[in-house]
Amino acid sequence: QVQLVESGGGSVQAGGSLRLSCAASGNTYSRYCMGWFRQVPGKEREGVAFIDSGGWLTYADTVKGRFTISQDIAKNTLYLQMNNLKPEDTAMYYCAAASACRLGWASLKASNFWGQGTQVTVSS
Question: Which residues of 77-92 are buried (b: 16+ CB within 10 A; e: fewer)?
Answer without folding.
Answer: bbbbebeebeeebbbb
